[in-house]
Design a protein that fits this description.
Blueprint: H1 10-40, H2 45-51, H3 54-72, H4 81-97, H5 101-112, H6 120-150, H7 156-185, H8 191-212, H9 219-227, H10 230-239, H11 242-273, H12 284-289, H13 291-326, H14 328-348, H15 352-369, H16 372-378, H17 386-393, H18 395-414, E1 416-419, E2 423-426, H19 430-446
Antiparallel strand pairs: 1-2
Helix pairs in contact: 1-4, 1-6, 1-7, 1-8, 1-11, 2-18, 3-6, 3-17, 3-18, 4-6, 4-8, 5-6, 6-17, 7-13, 7-15, 7-16, 11-13, 11-18, 11-19, 13-14, 13-15, 14-15, 14-19
Length: 453
């Protein structure tokens, strides 16, 4: 154990993870509800996929740069906290604007008197998604870098498991609040209200973590980081160990598989499970006809994501404990296999209860994905380069999303069929087949990684 780091207690781990609870709360709301918001503003499946490019592009650019900057930052708030707080505050503003994009477009029309293009509201919504994703990435990279910054090395797997726990709990609360209020009090929480709730959770959670976690700022480490450029960091990243390349390959295919579900599940629930036709260019009367089914599908998606993340929450700490006993890679392979089985099940069945159970099974894999790849990578990180390494590693999370947002979205847009005699729908379930294949490749690559003892 490092001389200047004491082992974290359970209370300290919970304080440390609370900011990620808020971050994931906001991110989960964006995952679940961005589809219904943008589709209501006229986004086709392919346009929706292009809007989703906000996440990967900002992840590939923002996280590596911000991670490198945070290694060199000297401020009264420390190295990482300025980015945690700044990202949370700006993202919260965009979370409030996003679901109100139509109102913002109408306000601009009234103020300027100009005849704005029909898709102005969709354009505003797309910009807000880019802002949300950029700011989430501003906070996320430095947050991951806090683990090797402040936690003793022998507790890295456990620290990442607490982050996984926070991700699960934040997602459960985000996804489950509206369905619970509907079930318990027959109150349907509006989409704008849910986004405001996410903004408050993100800000308060991050403020709490920044107040309760003390950074160990070594002047020598900061000065050393300041001497190196981002190009040096990139070069050093791939020179760390041959195993790092394997971990990056594993992460690349893992996130293709993960995002096939994350991006398309709500549309799958609405259009495949609840049999709502594509309403992109539908008349108002047709939209009204299917309004209740669309709402039911959206609520069902929220319930499934709540189940998915509840299981993640429940198994997060056990996965950390098991990985310490049986190695990270063995536990991770088994977890990925459970996710593959869940995906194949969701391809074959349209039964809502079965789909909800399968999402719970997939949650085991999600708990591992949120923790163990980072724990495996942290074995090879040099002191003083934590932010740069985690930022560059995020390229292998963000990059796969480009593949999903473009090629997978395009593929689904080409797989249309006719409902009845006149309505068009798409085979959203095909995303799960692609996801299962990629997760199988990730599991195979994981087996080749040689961890440090």
């Amino acid at each position: 154990m490092s001389n200047d780091m004491k082992k974290f207690t359970t209370a300290q781990f919970l304080n440390f993870a609370l900011g990620f609870f808020g971050l994931q709360f906001a991110w989960q709301m964006r995952i679940i509800l961005s589809g219904p918001v943008t589709e209501g503003l006229g986004a086709s499946p392919f346009i929706y996929g292009l809007i989703w490019l906000a996440g990967p592009f900002t992840g590939m650019v923002v996280q590596p740069l911000v991670g490198a900057l945070s290694d060199k930052t000297v401020s009264p708030l420390g190295r990482r906290r300025p980015y945690l707080l700044g990202g949370a505050l700006l993202a919260s503003l965009a979370l409030w604007i996003f679901p109100n994009s139509a109102s913002v477009a109408e306000f601009l029309h009234n103020v300027t008197g100009l005849n704005l293009p029909p898709l102005t509201a969709l354009f505003i919504a797309a910009i807000m998604i880019w802002v949300i994703d950029a700011c989430v990435n501003v906070a996320q990279g430095p947050y991951r870098a806090l683990v090797p910054d402040v936690v003793p090395e022998e507790q890295h797997s456990l620290a990442n498991s607490y982050i996984s726990l926070a991700i699960g709990l934040g997602s459960v609360v985000a996804a489950g609040t509206a369905p619970f209020l509907k079930w318990a009090f027959n109150y349907q929480m509006s989409i704008p209200a849910q986004f405001v709730m996410a903004a408050v959770a993100f800000t308060l959670g991050m403020v709490w973590t920044c107040l309760t976690v003390k950074e160990h700022n070594s002047k020598k480490e900061i000065e050393k980081a300041a001497e190196s450029s981002f190009a040096d960091a990139l070069k050093n990243f791939f020179a760390m160990s041959p195993e790092v390349s394997k971990i990056c390959t594993m992460q690349f295919f893992t996130w293709i598989g993960t995002m096939c579900m994350m991006i398309f599940f709500t549309q799958y629930a609405v259009h495949t499970i609840y049999c709502v036709p594509d309403l992109t260019s539908a008349s108002e009367s047709l939209k009204e006809m299917y309004a209740q089914s669309t709402l039911n599908g959206t609520n069902f998606s929220s319930i499934c994501f709540a189940v998915f993340n509840l299981i993640c929450f429940l198994v997060a700490i056990p996965i950390g404990i098991l990985s310490a006993k049986y190695t990270n890679k063995k536990v991770h392979i088994i977890s990925l296999i459970t996710m593959i089985l869940a995906y194949l099940g969701m391809f074959w069945t349209k039964n809502p209860k079965a789909v909800a159970c399968l999402m719970g099974l997939a949650g085991i894999g999600w708990a591992s994905i949120c923790a163990l790849p980072f724990a495996m990578l942290s074995q090879f990180i040099k002191k003083g380069t934590e932010g740069s390494v985690m930022g560059i590693f995020n390229i292998f999370i963000a990059g796969p999303q480009v593949f999903v947002c473009t090629l997978v979205a395009w593929f689904i847009s080409k797989c249309s069929f006719t409902m009845g005699s006149e309505y068009i729908n798409y085979h959203w379930e095909y995303a799960f087949v692609i996801g299962a294949v990629c997760l199988a490749i990730a599991a195979f690559v994981t087996g080749t990684v040689k961890e440090k003892s």
